[in-house]
Amino acid sequence: MSLAGPLSGIRIIEVGVMLAGPYATMLLADLGAEVIKVEPPGGEISRQVGDSYFASLNRNKRSICLDLRSGDGQAKLAELVADSHALLVNMKPSAIKKLGLTYDSLRRHNEGIVCVALTGYGLHGGDDPAFDYVIQAATGVAAMTGDPDAPPTLPGYSAADNSTGLTAALGLLAQIVSGRGGQVDVSLRDVMLSQLNYRASAYLNDGVEPRRQPFGAHSYYVPAQLFPTAKGYLALFITHDGFWKSFAGEAGIDGFVTMAERAAARDQVLAAVSAALATDSAANWEARLKPLRIPAAAVRTLPQALAETPEMVVASGDMRLVGSPIKVEGYRPVYRPAPGFEPQPS
Question: What does the UniProt keyword field contain (predicted)?
Fold first, then answer.
């Protein structure tokens, strides 16, 4: 028998749109929290993107349609707040304040409510548009991504939105655990700057500005990047001398024994590694290096990655989705489908 979810008994109200907010609350719902998604008349905008998009961010929730601009909608929201642990909202700061979705506005209904505002630049940071790609451009992520001789680039998924959703969920739970109600403020900009940790530290303390390296090479470790092979690309990540010794023995490379030597002779090391890897396919190199415990993987497509991890694909109603990444011993989520939408009667 599966145990109750670790967040069973926790009720969370979500006033979320598109990705970051709904992703945060879906992760919490997968862990057993009761999530009530408040949707405006006409439904949350991501329903217009498509059924699979909406399902991928809103399973395990139930939905209620409230016009928060009306007195009746505000009264029903107050009833929900009075019996909930937290409210998470991702909207423009001006809209959050106008609709009364802050702790200062809602504490009269429930002194213990945790209110999480997920915005682009902070609850007091203004209403400038803050979509994922805009934030990646504004925080230096795009500038340090891509080939040095090519334009800056962006990853193929919403890194800022997803990262901020995870951070917002952490902040929400931290404040619940504290036993105090209050306001939690999480912004896409601050999250992405935080995730540049060692890059930012190198600049702030040593004046070292990030610069792009071919094939996404790591700034410290050598070799640690993508390499072309006889067929396909291989990600190789040599972080210490033991890994290098094992790899060099398999690849037939002499010298460059220490990390300092490899860093000082980056170009020569990369040339030697590239020549060795060009003699076999990425798949074969992965198979050869795996028994040696060397961090390496052939570049896969998403369909290939999903085919290799069937345990991560779950059924949620009629949809097949990627399941929760959080595994709790004795608990297995039941993946209920994303809620349908029932507009308020006029």
Answer: Transferase
Active-site choice (161, 185, 206, 254): 161
The tokens for 262 are: 């490899």
- Asked if residue 167 lies in contact with residue 21, where contact means CB atoms within 8 angstroms, the answer is no
* Residue-wise pLDDT tens digits, 203-233: 999 999 999 999 999 988 999 999 999 999 9
pLDDT in tens, 262-305: 999 999 999 999 999 999 999 999 999 999 999 999 999 999 99
HEC sequence for 3-27? CCCCCCCCEEEEECCCCHHHHHHHH
**Mean pLDDT of the chain, nearest integer:** 96
- 341 exposure class (CB count in 10 Å sphere: 0-12, 13-18, 19+): middle
Residue 161 falls in the annotated catalytic set? yes
Strands 86-89, 313-316: pairing is unpaired
The model's pTM: 0.94
Give domain limits for the chain.
11-196+313-322, 233-298
The pLDDT of residue 291: 97
- For 11-196+313-322, the fitting CATH number among 3.60.21.10, 3.40.50.10540, 3.30.70.20, 3.30.70.1150 is 3.40.50.10540
